[in-house]
């Protein structure tokens, strides 16, 4: 069995973006047919912009987490490991730094993930990929 390809980007999936763009187009068409429904255009644009903005990406030397407003950049040399964890307001991706600091990023695992039940992260998990990436020597 071959090694799984390294996943370097999560969030803002192409299929979701296509569907949301169709939603904006549908809102425009409906507004042309029935002008009273024009508020559907800005509402669908806000949803589209929000979905496009959330992204977790690994570059050669840092982890970049983009949110609706702002972003977090964590240098690769500072990351020790990553894991998903429950918090009072939801599920977070905890990035544990070598100096003991923990960054709580609001990024959830896949719906089929078993990490939150205490099982170890699978190779296709974002937490597993980040931990593996951080352990490798810098390029």
From TrEMBL:
Ranges annotated as spanning the membrane: 12-30
Q: Does the keyword Transmembrane apply?
A: yes
Keyword presence, Transmembrane: yes
Entry keyword set:
Membrane, Transmembrane, Transmembrane helix
This one is known as PH (Pleckstrin Homology) domain-containing protein
């Amino acid at each position: 069995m071959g090694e799984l390809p390294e996943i370097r980007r999560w969030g803002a999936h192409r299929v979701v973006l296509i569907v949301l763009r169709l939603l904006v187009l549908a809102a425009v068409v409906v507004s042309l047919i029935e002008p009273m429904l024009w508020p559907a255009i800005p509402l669908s644009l806000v949803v589209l912009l929000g979905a496009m903005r959330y992204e977790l990406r690994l570059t050669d030397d840092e982890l970049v987490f983009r949110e609706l407003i702002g972003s977090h950049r964590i240098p690769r040399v500072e990351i020790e490991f990553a894991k998903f964890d429950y918090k009072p307001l939801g599920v977070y991706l905890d990035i544990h730094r070598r100096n003991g600091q923990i960054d709580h990023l609001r990024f959830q695992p896949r719906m089929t993930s078993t990490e939150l039940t205490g099982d170890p992260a699978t190779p296709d998990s974002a937490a597993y990929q980040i931990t593996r990436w951080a352990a490798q020597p810098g390029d």
